[in-house]
Amino acid sequence: MSVSRLCTRLIEALIVFLLVFMVVIVFANVVLRYGFNSGIHLSDELSRYAFVWLTFLGAIVTFRENAHVNIETLVSRFGRRGRLVCMGLTQGVVMICAAAMVMGTLRLHPLNATMKATVSGIPMSWVSDVLGVCGAGIFLIAAVRLVAILTGRISQSELDAFAGQNLSEDHQ
């Protein structure tokens, strides 16, 4: 198993854990509120922060699998060379945006580390730092793709996925 696939599996496992955590804590809170006139004070805050992490970790996995929103109408009309150029330009733009996310997170980290969550008291940097994690993950994926494009090692299946052509469309 490649390092990339292993990292993806770990992120997917963390996403599943966060989703299960959210369901359990919110369900337990509902049962306690309506059944026992009690509740878990941290449930709203922790489930909200888990959802933020789940969303940004999901963005990494989505980007790796080329399942993000993509404008395929024009790219699908190009041949291999045109697709390579578009994919290369796209990866460059994505790398710039992802680097901006990482740099912004690093600049805001000291401020967010001093701010505390209202109920739990955890530093807000624990919540906001997922932006840097997401940006770094997406940057690395885009960089690997760009290197593959520039060295001619990009697979036809990756190029087809970028152009919005997948197996389900071929069988229709």
Secondary-structure element pattern, one letter each: HHHHHHHH
Mean pLDDT score: 88
Low confidence ranges:
167-172
Oligomer: single chain
The proportion of strand residues reads under 5%
Q: How many helices in DSSP terms?
A: 8
> Number of DSSP strands?
0
Radius of gyration: 20 Å
Q: Can you give the helix content as a percent range? A: over 70%
The tally of domains stands at: 1
Global shape: elongated
Largest sheet: none
Distance between termini?
32 Å
Structural class label: mainly alpha
Subcellular location: Cell inner membrane
Keywords: Cell inner membrane, Cell membrane, Membrane, Transmembrane, Transmembrane helix, Transport
Membrane topology: Multi-pass membrane protein
Family: Belongs to the TRAP transporter small permease family.
